[in-house]
Design brief:
Blueprint lengths: L12 H11 L4 E9 L2 E8 H19 L10 H5 L8 E5 L6 H11 L2 E5 L6 H10 L4 E5 L6 H9 L3 E5 L2 H5 L13 H4 L3 E6 L9 E5 H8 L25 E4 L6 H13 L3 E4 L8 H7 L5 E4 L1 H8 L2 H4 L7 E4 L6 H10 L1 E4 L30 E7 L2 E7 L4 H4 L2 H4 L5 E10 L7 E6 L4 E2 L5 E2 L2 H7 L5 E7 L7 E6 L7 H17 L11 E3 L16 H7 L1 H13 L16 H15 L19 H15 L7 H6 L3 H27 L16 H12 L3 E2 L11 E9 L6 H18 L6 E4 L12 E4 L14 E5 L7 H6 L9 H4 L10 E2 L1 E8 L2 E9 L5 H18 L19 H8 L34 H6 L32 E7 L1 H12 L11 H24 L9 E9 L1 H4 L12 E4 L2 E3 H5 L5 H13 L3 H13 L18 E5 L22 E4 L10 E4 L8 E7 L1 H8 L2 H6 E7 L2
Parallel strand pairs: 1-10, 3-4, 3-5, 5-6, 9-10, 9-11, 11-12, 12-13, 21-22, 27-29, 32-35, 35-37
Antiparallel strand pairs: 1-2, 7-8, 14-15, 15-16, 16-17, 18-19, 20-21, 23-26, 24-30, 24-36, 25-26, 25-28, 29-30, 31-38, 31-39, 32-33, 32-34, 37-38
Helix pairs in contact: 1-2, 2-4, 5-6, 12-14, 17-18, 19-20, 21-22, 21-24, 26-29, 33-36, 33-38
Length: 1208
């Protein structure tokens, strides 16, 4: 891969995407969420589709801006005749929370611009200050969105060119888009903006902050922080952010944390980002619906607080890795409850410097911060026990101190945050406020109190006032009166009039609410200096208990709210709607009209006012916790919310009636004994089918095949006169009948619930539709495609030997090879060409091994014959328990193969795609306490198996793709060549009478040739050397059915594979002194170790594991000297017959595996079924230099002839 450790901190994000789109085009990088009846659905976006959408956005910008002074980043001028200019143009934007924020960010960088994300919380004065300071004269508006009042106000004050950004669907529909080249170096772009945000304006007008590529690079470099003295042995905060993790952020993308979590982290750490739903403000109801789909959460503090107060929702977070809380302080007491269920990562950072030096602290200390010494932080004590946060430039600043990209002329920066020190650990710190008096709410909003306090203090009855609310959901005002005895409604109203003036004069939209104003206590005057100015910190400490009690009272009841003024009339939906409108008017008096179908958040309702609305309705309906803020977030119009409210009220009413009836009703008589007819054969069958359709969990042997589709292409000639539509209809009907016989094929595979008894990570379940398909329905799994105008005729394909270069696997079945869960067990596409059909089918390999796949195909084919009148095609050979994945374990226990794990030869691990350090529970497989105790004892039997081979493996499945892709290459070993190869091999004296089959010889020949080509490339081109003990590992999946038990049906479909792993020193394998016979003997000797006892022991080991999520095979990756062979040499396509009514001859003329999907991830070799002429085809992936080495290998070309080569 290009992105090596040495490049971290020096990568440009658009280039990371472009490389990923080439290396792993099918990787899901974003998913767009929509809700259907509260259930999330996801539209997945691959890296390739996303890269194309970025390019489309870049070209769209270029088209509209090419007359302006926009710098052309990269080099599109050279390849696309784009005029190169020199100024980075800012593009103002406020839009829905959707993927266009991301596309605009990427596209702007490529087109020589920078997206400026303006907070909608600004007022017009603050917004203009940011736009003018950024020299921004272009506004980008989402095409479908009406002009926001804030933007209308801006345009009245400032001339700006307005561009209408296309919809999400238009930007994503970009398959034909020409690439927009971006080839700037990091050095040339280091000080150019990636995007522009702005300060909150808490200390005056907001100011723009340019997030340069250099600043972004410090986020990428966090993983490079070394372990040194002073870090307490703690790891950087990015540790455990793993490739493929799904992340969801509740922050808007006008907030720094939103950009970091939705744009930066997915790119820099290869995460899968979940966005949306657009138009739904993040709330607990939405969060609850996403549980089970998210690994990493990024939440505003107030949402984490709310989660801690909802244990039922919190319990659903156990499967997540952690919650990242940032943007403001959280409640230590409440969030500690969250931390008990799912780990909380508490982060602190700044818009100017991002997250500098944060470290993972021990779980019990989650509320405290720790920082790496390279951060350059100093905590200066400004009063006893309170420390002010400073950062000083050091020699590591370019990689780890991003704030000095924002302030290049400064060597020290006062962050003005105040901290207290941990009582026992001097390097742990907790946030306690701001030295510049800023109030930081729990939702991350920052409010400068000075202007409001100064204005309110002008009231003649006010001695002083302090704004409160740090760490709370709502700002409040604590007022000290000159005469406490004067408290009355008239005084309060006159003070409120001044507060209203303050609300309308500040730069931020966050407003003080009437019920959040309190008067000080007479016996606790504000603490003042000699000059009579209020000592803010000391006074807030004095009133700490009072403030806590004040907020508790506001949360429990509204002391100043006149609930008698409200009611909810449930006579009809219309009366409920009118009642809700009345409540809305009370909290938003400045809004004259409330259209029932308009989003109330667009009208001015914010997260702070939501609490007040819900509190009023709770009080007048008695619904209490049954009505929550999430109901309003999920139904944001008055019409929708009224319907939901009436539904909740009617449900509660129905419950009450049911309880009343129950209390008045006598206990009913016991049910009668079931009649004997329940035991009839018909009823038994119905009950058995119902029970079967409940689905089942996979067994330990199924874990041998990790989650991926096994794909096959079958080539059929169409019978004369049969149309494409007729053939497809027969395939559909046959598949529907096959689903009646094997209903599991109509099912899906899904992850097992971690709440199941005996749950182990990486386990899967099969879920099956509760009822068979209606006669009128067609299988969803089978798709029709007419390729007659795209591909050659079947006759031409036959003449070309059905070569892989005729088409890409993706053309005949576009299906992600590593599907997200749940996933269909079967996916198929019938592709019709002139005179023939290419039936492409994918089966989830975890559910079915190769034998199971052939059973499924054979059953489908036989069902087609039956429907065509073949009365013998009844699938009577198929055992009804063939898809019962419980069978192996039942037989294993019944036949007495269970044994303690410590009695299993450790070399048995060599026959499994796992390593013993994955996690083994010694108690699985033992039967008694004595056995458990015995597991601590050394093995009593002697090890007879060789040690399991060692190889790197991968921490994730699937393994990360390589930068390069292999090309599909096919060689032919003719029947004559095979005979000659066999005779010459058996004549070799080194065979010493060891019996080797022609299959061993062909496998040995293929193993040596494939590795020797890579060996020669390594030595002759890369000057690589190999040690005598460096091994080549050949992996050969072996069917374990013959070894397992005679009780297992021959048609059993689940996985029963073990891995034969012969090994040889690389130098020996590739040496001209080593004969094919020696290699074949190594393969035969390794195969001879596979016995019934060994297969039973592999099941014991698999059963003992606690984590199946990290399979490890030696063929993963491209840069090694290992391989896996799939040998189908003895499989006969004539075993499959769909009948001659629509496929000529009934059987496929050829079958080919879909191997292109693995060309960036695996070294995989295929020996195809023996041809009618007695030859076999050898299929493998090669790099150009490797193919050259193969073609120059005299031993190989003596027997093998190149048939086909399809370039990657």
């Amino acid at each position: 891969m290009v992105d090596t450790d040495s490049l971290y901190g020096r990568r440009l994000i658009p280039q990371i995407l472009d490389r990923l789109a080439v290396a792993d085009p099918e990787r899901h990088v974003y998913s767009i969420t929509s809700l259907s009846d509260g259930i999330p659905k996801f539209k997945h976006i691959t890296s390739q589709a996303f890269a194309r959408a970025v390019d489309r956005t870049a070209w769209w910008l270029h088209k509209h801006l090419n007359q302006m002074n926009g710098a052309s980043n990269g080099d599109p001028a050279q390849e696309h005749d784009v005029t190169v200019t020199h100024k980075i143009q800012a593009l103002g934007y406020i839009g829905p929370h959707d993927i266009r924020h991301v596309l605009l960010t990427y596209g702007a960088v490529k087109a020589g611009c920078a997206a400026l994300f303006l907070s909608p919380k600004n007022n017009i004065t603050g917004a203009l200050a940011v736009l003018n300071a950024s020299d921004c004269s272009i506004w980008v508006k989402p095409r479908e969105q009406a002009m926001l009042p804030l933007v209308e106000g801006i345009l009245q004050e400032k001339y700006m060119r307005v561009l209408e950004l296309p919809s999400v669907d238009e930007l994503l529909e970009a398959k034909s888009t020409e690439p927009f080249v971006f080839n700037k170096t990091f050095e040339s772009a280091i000080n150019e903006p990636f995007c522009i945000l702005h300060t909150s304006g808490t200390t005056g007008v907001p100011k723009p902050i340019l997030w340069t590529h250099g600043l972004i690079g410090t986020m990428d470099a966090v993983r490079l922080l070394p372990s040194i003295e002073g870090d307490g042995g703690l790891t950087p905060w990015t540790d455990n952010w793993n490739e493929g993790d799904k992340i969801y952020s509740s922050f808007p993308m006008s907030h720094g944390a939103g950009v970091i979590m939705d744009i930066l982290m997915p790119s820099l750490f290869n995460l899968h980002c979940i966005l949306g739903p657009s138009g739904v403000l993040p709330n607990l109801g939405l969060i609850e619906s996403l549980t089970g789909h998210i690994d990493i959460w990024s939440m505003v503090p107030s949402l984490v607080d709310e989660l801690g107060e909802n244990p039922e929702v919190l319990a659903k977070f156990e499967s997540s890795k952690f919650i990242c809380a940032s943007g403001g302080p959280v409640s230590p007491v409440i969030v500690s409850k969250v931390n008990e269920v799912v780990r909380v990562l508490n982060l602190t950072g700044t818009t100017e410097g991002l997250f500098i030096g944060n470290l993972w602290v021990p779980r019990e200390d989650w509320h405290w911060f720790a920082f790496h010494p390279y951060s350059g932080f100093e905590f200066r004590e400004v009063q006893p026990g309170v420390y002010e946060h400073w950062v000083h430039r050091n020699e590591h600043w370019a990689l780890f101190q991003g704030i000095f990209y924002t302030f290049p002329d400064q060597d020290s920066v006062n962050l003005k945050d105040l901290y207290i020190r941990h009582p026992k650990n001097p390097n742990f710190w907790a946030f306690s406020g701001r030295s510049d008096d800023v109030v930081v709410l729990s939702n991350g909003y920052k409010i400068s109190p000075l202007d409001t306090e100064a204005l309110v203090t002008t009231h003649p009855a006010v001695e002083g006032c302090l704004m409160i609310g740090t760490g709370k959901p709502q700002a409040g005002l604590l007022i000290e009166l000159k005469d406490n005895s004067e408290k009355n409604n008239e005084l309060f109203d006159s003070i409120w009039a001044i507060v209203e003036r303050a609300n309308n004069s500040t730069f931020q939209k966050t407003r003080l609410q009437r019920e959040y104003i309190a008067f000080s206590e007479a016996d606790k005057p504000f603490i003042r200096t000699d000059k009579q100015t209020i000592k803010r910190r000391a006074t807030l400490d004095l009133y700490a208990d009072f403030i806590d009690r004040f907020y508790i009272s506001r949360d429990e009841e509204a002391e100043d709210e006149d609930f008698d003024a409200f009611s909810i009339d449930t006579t009809s939906i219309s009366t409920v709607r009118e009642s809700v409108t009345h409540v809305m008017r009370s909290v938003l008096p400045e809004v004259d009209d409330f259209p029932v179908d308009e989003d109330v958040f667009d009208l001015g309702l914010d997260s702070l006012l939501v609490f007040r609305v819900i509190r009023i309705i709770r009080a007048v309906t008695g619904l209490e916790e049954k009505l929550a803020p999430r109901h309003l977030y999920a139904h944001p119009t008055i019409d929708e919310f009224s319907v939901q409210l009436l539904k909740i009220l009617e449900e509660e009413k129905a419950k009450k009636i049911a309880v009343d009836l129950l209390s008045d009703t006598e206990t009913s008589k016991p049910a009668e004994t079931p009649c004997s007819s329940i035991k009839s054969e018909k009823m038994r069958k119905i009950m058995a089918d119902r029970k079967r359709r409940l689905g089942s969990k996979m067994n330990p042997f199924d874990a041998v095949n990790p989650n991926h589709y096994m794909g096959l292409n079958f080539y059929f000639a169409l019978s004369p006169g049969v149309s494409f539509e007729e053939a497809f209809a027969k395939l559909q009907a046959g598949l529907s009948r096959a689903f009646e016989i094997i209903p599991e094929l109509d099912g899906k595979m899904m992850l097992a619930s971690e709440h199941e008894f005996g749950y182990k990570k990486g386990e899967y379940r099969i879920t099956i539709p509760p009822h068979p398909l209606p006669a009128s329905s067609k299988p969803r799994q089978l798709v029709y495609k007419d390729l007659s105008q795209v591909l050659p005729s079947f006759g031409e394909m036959r003449q070309a030997g059905f070569s892989p270069s005729l088409f890409s696997d993706e053309l005949v079945l576009d299906c992600t090879p590593f599907p997200p869960m749940p996933a269909d067990i079967l996916v198929a596409q019938a592709n019709f060409v002139e005179g023939g059909c290419i039936l492409a089918a994918n089966f989830i390999h975890t559910c079915l091994d190769a034998v199971g796949v052939m059973v499924a195909i054979r059953a489908w084919a036989e069902c087609c014959r039956y429907l065509d009148g073949d009365e013998t095609a009844t699938c009577d050979w198929f055992d009804a328990e063939s898809f019962n994945h419980d069978l192996p374990e039942i037989i294993w226990e019944k036949e007495g193969y269970a044994k303690p794990v410590h009695e299993v030869d450790p070399g048995t691990w060599g026959f499994l795609p796992f390593t013993p350090d994955i996690g083994v529970d010694l108690r699985n497989g033992t039967d008694s306490h004595d056995d458990i105790m015995a597991s601590e004892k050394p093995r009593a039997t002697q090890n007879t198996l060789p040690p399991a081979p060692v190889f790197p493996g991968s921490s994730v499945w699937p393994a990360a793709p390589s930068e390069r892709s292999l090309s599909t290459t096919v060689f032919l070993l003719s029947g004559e060549s095979i005979h000659r190869l066999k005779q010459e091999t058996l004549a070799d004296p080194v065979t010493n009478g060891v019996s080797t089959s022609v299959i061993d010889i062909v496998q040995a020949f293929f193993w040596r040739a494939s590795i020797r080509s890579r060996y020669k490339v390594a030595k002759e081109i890369r000057n690589q050397t190999f040690q005598p003990n460096e091994l080549s590992i050949l992996e050969m999946p072996i069917d374990g059915r013959p070894y397992f038990s005679s009780l297992l049906p021959s048609s059993y479909m689940g996985s029963l594979l073990v891995m034969n792993r012969p090994v040889m020193p690389i130098e020996t394998l590739c040496s001209p002194e080593t004969n094919i016979s020696q290699i074949a003997r190594v393969i035969r000797e390794a195969a001879a170790r596979i016995t019934p006892s060994l297969v039973h022991d592999t099941f014991t080991l698999l059963r003992s594991m606690t984590d199946y999520s990290k399979p490890a095979t030696a063929n993963m990756g491209l840069e090694h000297m290992n391989a896996m062979i799939s040998n189908m040499m003895l499989f006969q396509t004539s075993d499959i017959s769909f009948g001659g009514s629509f496929f000529e001859g009934g059987s496929p003329e050829a079958m080919r595996p879909q191997i292109e999907r693995g060309h960036r991830r695996f070294r995989f070799l295929v020996i195809s079924p023996m041809r009618k002429d007695g030859g076999v085809e050898l299929v493998l992936g090669t790099l150009p230099e490797e193919l050259n080495m193969l073609m120059s290998d005299e031993e190989f070309t003596k027997y093998a002839v190149l048939l086909d080569h399809k370039r990657a």
